[in-house]
Write a structure and sequence with these properties.
The complex is a heterodimer of chains A (345) and B (323). By secondary structure, chain A is mainly α. Helices cover 77% and strands 0% of the residues of chain A. In chain A, helix 1 packs antiparallel against helix 14 and helix 6 packs across helix 10. Chain B folds into 2 domains: 6-92 and 174-315, P-loop containing nucleotide triphosphate hydrolases (Rossmann fold), CATH 3.40.50; 102-173, no CATH class. The chains are: A mainly alpha (345), B alpha/beta (323). The A-B interface holds A 236-238, 240-248, 251, 256, 259-260, 263, 333-336, 343 and B 53, 56, 58, 60, 86-91, 94-95, 97, 99, 102-108, 116-117, 120-121, 152, 154, 165, 168-169, 171-172.
Chain lengths: 345, 323
């Protein structure tokens, strides 16, 4: 009962936030200087052409009409055309978004698969050698500039060891001889689904460095958060009670304590996931990864306003969806959250 | 005489402190016969809980056992294999913690917490575990035990939580149950119910109990033997009649006088003057002397050795005969 009500309340809230994001985006587009028609046609367009384009783009309509059209277009994925490529933005996004998501999802999986267990073990062996090493590694990980790490890894693994490619998603030979059939847009998934193992291996090799660089911050932060909240939980009476009841230390750490400790960690993980999408801008540029980040960077450099708005909206939606998922996941883990109180601090 | 179920001898527990180790238990000796209830009384910080945790081998780090023996059925646990000690927890020696709200894991249902312990100790396979958990909760006189299994700790009242904790302690079918302030968080009527229940369970299951409390009333109701703990040492031990009717140690007498129930008029409550010294290690002589109305020169010079007042009554005080 309370679970369903909680779900509905969260969903309504998420929709409201999304509407708010649309309103702000729309407002900004009308506040910033510069005539969209002029930007679209370029500096030397004639007055007549500009008037025609203004009418064509609906820029002469009253603001409420424009807003409704903006919202309904956005909902349908109609973001208009890029000023620069003159292609429908939605088509660009369909290529770029999966490329970025591939990096971000892999980085998040690494954060969960490496950061969480390492944090649990560091807390379990508090003040041991392992704990000390983890503390140093994770503080380096959260404070190291990504571009510096990226260059360092390129130097090491490409130039010196010649083990991994410098950048891109696939090598050109592979693209020609073993092209990946697009199903989901995730090369790793598509290549595996179509049994194209030559391309899969190549895609893995290309993904390793950007994923490692992108994952450094999330993994380190997850480790630190997990360790800190595990230390809190391990000091609680119910853990001592579980020990007194003779339960295995493994079960105490990874089942009883971790379920408590993961709840606050998930909040951070959700934020970091969304943050990584914007964080990917720099990393994609360094690794020539054809994703959302490099798309956005091009748009910024070329005053490609519609693209910027589209990317902003997409990132906002991802943010909202991720946070909604985190909220629901936490409510699933902690029955007290379903009551609507924030009894977990 | 047969071997006592639990025999603690010279138990010392210390924590690292600047300039050496600070002892919180300074040599504790007591024996618990099988099937009896042993009470340990004392005020906050005297080492009651530490004694309980030490018996289970769960002294919280950085503390550690600094000496002495803890023998279960004649086998010393301190010098023995740590895994043997771990093997006793839950299955032979169980513990009921104070503050039931904190001692239950908030994110797991009552059922899953009880069943985890049953499975761990091989007391039930997964299929029977639910049935066994239901009958265990029924034994603890909880209403509608089947529905209770699917509920979370925060949905239960304090009294119910306490009974669930007792059920969890009994889930491994232990012989010895250590109840650490198990009724302190409850209001008086519920407290009396839980104590009566504990007593019935003891008789029915042949349990041995160690009841740790600051409440002399609890001890009077339930225990066969009583130890009074002050600053990590047992200052007086005896049968309840000895302790309540012929207390010898000034601390015991102070505790008895300070019971609110003794008063009929609205006079100020009797108190033991002063407070527990922060550091027992730096005290020479008797640890209680600064709060003691009978302190003599000898109290300053040497810590009183234990004296047998009768076959079953001992006290650690220089006073002759008392009063």
């Amino acid at each position: 009962m309370s679970g369903i009500r909680y779900l509905l309340r969260r969903l309504v809230l998420a929709l409201l936030v999304m509407l708010g994001a649309l309103t702000v985006t729309f407002a900004i587009s009308h506040v910033i200087p510069g005539d969209p028609a002029r930007l679209y046609l370029g500096a030397r367009a004639s007055e007549e052409a500009i008037v025609a384009v203004r009418a064509d783009l609906g820029l002469d309509d009253p603001l409420p009409v424009q807003f409704v059209r903006f919202v309904s277009n956005a909902v349908q994925g109609e973001f208009g055309y890029s000023y620069r490529t003159k292609r429908p933005i939605i088509e660009d996004l369909a290529e770029r978004l999966p490329a970025t998501m591939e990096l971000v999802v892999l980085a998040t999986i690494l954060a969960l698969a490496v950061g969480v267990p390492a944090g649990v073990l560091a807390a379990a062996r508090f003040a041991s050698g392992f704990d000390r090493v983890m503390r140093v590694v994770s503080i380096l990980g959260v404070s190291m500039p990504a571009f510096w790490l990226a260059l360092l890894l390129q130097l090491f693994f490409f130039l010196w060891l010649d083990l991994l490619p410098l950048g891109g998603r696939l090598s050109q030979t592979t693209s020609f001889l073993h092209p990946v059939t697009t199903l989901t847009g995730f090369h790793l998934v598509d290549a595996a689904l179509t049994g194209n193992w030559v391309a899969w291996r190549d895609a893995v090799a290309h993904a390793i460095l950007p994923v490692v660089v992108l994952a450094t911050f999330p993994v380190s932060l997850t480790l630190r958060m997990t360790r800190a909240s595990m230390l809190d939980v391990l000091a609680e009476t119910h853990i001592t009670a579980a020990r007194a009841a003779g339960l295995h230390e493994r079960e105490i750490l990874f089942r009883l304590a971790l379920k408590n400790a993961i709840v606050p960690t998930l909040t951070v993980l959700g934020l970091v996931f969304a943050f990584s999408i914007t964080g990917a801008v720099l990393i994609e540029s360094i690794f020539k990864w054809p994703g959302l980040g490099s798309y956005m960077l091009d748009a910024i450099l070329n005053d490609d306003i519609p693209v910027l708005f589209a990317v902003t909206l997409v990132v906002t939606v991802i943010y909202i969806v991720i946070n909604l998922l985190v909220d629901l996941l936490q409510a699933g883990l902690d029955p007290r959250i379903r009551l609507g109180e924030s009894s977990v601090g | 005489m047969n071997t006592p179920l639990l025999a603690v001898s010279g138990l010392r527990v210390g924590f690292p402190a600047p300039g050496g180790r600070r002892l919180v238990l300074r040599g504790i000796d007591f024996e618990v016969e099988e099937g009896t209830a042993y009470g340990i009384v004392g005020e906050s910080g005297c080492g009651k809980s530490m004694t309980a945790h030490a018996i289970l081998g769960l002294v919280p780090p950085p503390g550690s056992i600094a000496g002495g023996t803890i023998a279960y059925r004649g086998q010393d646990l301190v010098s023995g294999d740590p895994s043997a000690w771990a093997g006793l927890r839950g299955r032979h020696i169980a513990m009921v913690h104070q503050d039931p709200g904190a001692a239950l894991n908030p994110l797991f249902t009552i059922g899953s917490q009880i069943k985890a312990i049953m499975r761990r100790h091989g007391r039930a396979r997964s299929r029977e575990a639910r049935q066994r958990a239901v009958s265990l909760l029924g034994e603890l006189e909880l209403a509608d035990p089947a529905a209770l299994l699917d509920r979370y700790p925060h949905e239960l009242s304090g009294g119910m939580q306490q009974r669930v904790l007792l059920a969890m302690a009994l889930a491994g079918d232990p012989d010895l149950v250590i109840a650490d302030e198990a009724t302190t968080a409850l209001d008086v009527t519920i407290q009396a119910q839980v104590l009566a229940l504990l007593d019935r369970l003891r008789k029915k299951r042949g349990l041995t109990l160690v009841i740790i409390t600051h409440d002399l009333g609890v001890v009077a109701q339930t225990c066969d033997r009583v130890a009074v703990l002050y600053l990590g040492r047992i200052v007086e031990e005896g049968d309840p009649e000895d302790i309540f009717l012929e207390p010898h140690h000034p601390y015991t007498r102070g505790l008895l006088k300070a019971r609110p129930g003794e008063q009929t008029q609205r006079t100020p409550l009797a108190v033991i003057p002063g407070s527990v010294p922060a550091d027992a290690a730096n005290i020479t002589g008797c640890a209680f002397r600064e709060r003691c109305a009978f302190a003599m020169d000898s109290c300053r010079l040497e810590d009183p050795a234990e004296r047998r007042l009768s076959d079953r009554h001992r006290s650690a005080c220089h006073l002759e005969g008392g009063r």
